[in-house]
Amino acid sequence: DQRGAGKSFHGQSRSARLSLKRLLQDTEELIQLLCRRFNQNKIYLMGHSCGSILGLHTALKHPEWLHHYIGVGQIVNM
User: Fold this and answer.
1) Dist CA 14 CA 4 (whole Å)
2) Distance (Å, whole) CA 3 – CA 44
3) Residue bearing the bigger pLDDT, 39 or 78
4) Of 2, 21, 69, 70, whose CB count within 10 A is highest?
5) How far is the C-alpha of 9 from the C-alpha of 2, rounded, in Å?
6) 24 vs 58: CA distance, rounded Å
7) Angstrom distance (rounded) from CA 18 to CA 4
8) 0.85 exceeded by the pTM?
9) Range 72-76, long-range pairs (CB < 8 A, 24+ positions)
10) C-alpha to C-alpha distance for 57 and 39, rounded to whole angstroms
11) pLDDT, tens digit, 9 for 90 and up, residues 11-34
12) Is there a contact between 4 and 23 (Cβ–Cβ < 8 Å)?
């Protein structure tokens, strides 16, 4: 559930909470949680459409966390 969408949407202003930096932090926190929960050192990360931007940034910053990054509908030029 992306921050500000689905179950995490509470009718508040999304623009005040959403930023690329915050979404990247969410991605990093989720990866660390998954690694701990499933006792893994690395995961496979797939990013789709807008999530492909987060995936690329994460893969560049933390390649040691990933077996592979898979981009689907990869955005390459914003």
Assistant:
1) 6
2) 21
3) 39
4) 69
5) 9
6) 7
7) 7
8) no
9) 72/46, 72/47, 72/48, 73/48, 73/49, 74/47, 75/49, 75/50
10) 24
11) 665 555 678 999 999 999 999 999
12) no
